[in-house]
Amino acid sequence: MLIQLKIKNFALIDHLEVEFSNGMTCITGETGAGKSILLGGLSLVLGKRADLSSFFDSSRKCIVEATFDIKNYTLEALFNTFDLDYEDETVLRRELLPHGKSRAFINDTPVNLSVLEKVSLNLIDIHSQNDTLSLFENEYQFQVLDAIANNQEILTQYQKTLALYKSKLKEYNHYKEVHTESKDALELKQFLFEELQNSKLQVGMQEDIEIKLSTLSHVEYLQTTLASSIQLLEQESLGILDQMKELRRHSQGLSDKSKEYKEIHERITISSIETEDFLELLKQKFDHLEANPKKLQELNSQMDFLNSLYQKHKVNDIDDLLAIKKKLELTLNDTLSLDHKLSALEQMINEQSAILTRLSQKLTKQRKNAIHLLKIELEQILTKMGMKDTLFKIELINTDKFLLNGMDQLSFQFSANKGGDFKPLKKAASGGELSRIMLAIKTVLSRYKKLPTLVFDEIDSGVSGKISGNIAEVMANMSKKLQVFTITHLPQVAAKGDHHFKVEKSEQNGKFKTQLHLLNPETRINEIAKMLSKNEITDTAIAHARELMN
Q1: DSSP letter string, 105-156
Q2: Sheet arrangement for strand 109-111
Q3: Fewest C-beta atoms under 10 Å: which of 1, 88, 312, 431?
């Protein structure tokens, strides 16, 4: 419930700080005193659009702060959803800055207006004669009916199943689309994969081909050069090997005569051995080297094929081709396994469909039982509020579709007169009638679910004194279970409240200000007397006021 409201620098309010209690609170005041300003300020903190021209002093920021006691509202999960700190006493704050920016906070945590509005919907509900659009919405009508039918648990299960059903259906449609891809496209992918597969591509393959091509392309030069090199090494007397042997003998003699030359001898020996190894290597190369035009042609063909693959796939190396091959393989495997996937998904969809159908049937059954109860209760309450000939026609229309609330569509029709035609609410009911219908619905709802604080803005206007007394009695009965505010011009309504505030506008230093005062028992009697006698307090009016309050 709303326990405190602070408004600074808004419209005609310089500074207002007021505390509220449970039960029914009545707010009265002369036309133009500022009752609508209070609602405007409260709307700001509930996330409504700001009128940035509504500053009492345009040089200062406007602040509206509302404190709620929410310990009985079970809103911890909602706060966790938005990553907010939960407090039993939760503070909603809105700040409007002179330069046009707006900020919002929940328990001192900055939030955007969307979050502020979603949280506030669970805290307070404002109604006026012009604010009954929700009555026309099928979603709201279902909420009312399902609350009476005690469908919340079934409905939650249904909506979870529906989300899964839609997810699997989306997945099925995706794979179905892939499965129906053109035959030519699939055949092309298969061909490209097989081409790459048969190419036996390997990392370093191109470099190996290039080396072999280079060798075979210069085979004559290589043979001649290798032969000359071998001759240089092993020619008798003049060959490098013979000379190295002679050098080893000399270095051996030096080493024998003086250890100073031992290292030189060792290095010459190593060089001699390496030279012999060079010779063997050159001979091996020479022996294996031969002209092979057929092999050369084959290698050139391989290189041409690789280049064609590069060009076809618009890549530059073997690694890229191998990556494309892998991707094609995965795609083809997915395609080949689609039948299995589609079959499995179809089975899951059918299972979820069966569950949804079963849950929908339960919802429908319990709704049909609740319709009769809702109809009777609404008609009884509205009769008490002066709409004695009111009749409702509430019907469920079954569909073959899984809708958000089941497989039902709801027809909520109204007739204001006996024998009159039933029509949708928005076509059959006046503004005043819609206000009373909303009050009746909220009255019924309050018996079946925990409602937030309700604020009624002159929904009793245009009714007689007797009927207004009955409307007040309905609101007073509601206030035994929840906090109710009513802004009214009717003394019959004001007299039924547990608390009574008066809105007054006064002039100070040439500037008008709006203030809110809690009336004590005596001043309250005087205020109701003034309302009864058009601002003239007479003994008769006071006596009548006392009578109304008893």
Answers
A1: EETTEEE-HHHHHHHHTTTEEEEETT--GGGG-HHHHHHHHHHHHT-HHHHH
A2: 13-19, 2-10, 62-69, 89-96, 102-106, 109-111
A3: 88
Neighbours of 453 (CB within 10 A): 21
Which of 104-113, 116-125, 234-243, 250-259 shows the lowest mean pLDDT across its residues?
234-243
Band the pLDDT of 198: cuts 50, 70, 90. Answer: confident
Which tens digit of pLDDT belongs to each residue from 481-532?
899 999 998 999 999 999 999 998 887 777 788 888 999 999 999 999 998 8
**Quick check: 144 and 445 in contact, CB under 8 A?**
yes
Cα–Cα distance, 24 to 293 (Å, whole number): 107
Best CA proximity match to 169, nearest among 379, 348, 385, 363: 348
Instruction: Give long-range contacts, CB 8 A cutoff, 24+ apart: 370-374.
Output: 370/145, 370/146, 370/148, 370/149, 371/145, 371/395, 371/396, 373/148, 374/144, 374/145, 374/148, 374/444
Q: Which two tokens stand for residue 301?
A: 């063909």
Beta-bridge mates of residue 362: none
Q: Where in the chain is the domain with CATH 3.40.50.300?
A: 1-123+452-518
Sheet of strand 453-457: strand arrangement: 124-128, 453-457, 484-487, 24-28, 499-508, 511-518
What is the Cα gyration radius of the chain? 46
Which residues 6+ apart lie within 8 Å of 34 measured at CB? 11, 12, 13, 503, 504, 505, 514
- Structure token digits, residue 34: 């500022």
Q: Which residues contact 121 (CB under 8 A, 6 or more apart)?
A: 452
pTM (2 d.p.): 0.66
pLDDT in tens, 535-550: 778 888 899 999 988 7
Which has the closest alpha carbon to 378: 445, 431, 432?
Answer: 445
Q: What is the pLDDT of residues 360-408, one digit of tens each?
A: 999 999 999 999 999 999 999 998 888 888 889 999 999 999 999 999 9
User: Distance (Å, rounded) from C-alpha 35 to C-alpha 43?
Assistant: 13
Q: CB neighbours of 22 closer than 8 A, spacing ≥ 6?
A: 1, 479, 483, 498
pLDDT at position 84: 93
Interacting residues of 412 by C-beta distance below 8 A, sequence separation 6+: 138, 141, 392, 394, 424, 425
Across 317-345, b (16+ Cβ under 10 Å) vs e yields: ebeebbebbeebeeebeebeebeebbeeb
User: What does the buried/exposed string (b/e) look like for 459-494 if buried means 16 or more CB atoms within 10 Å of the residue's CB?
Assistant: bbeebeeebbbbbbebbbebbeebbbbbbbbbbbbb
Question: What does CATH list as the number for 1-123+452-518?
Answer: 3.40.50.300
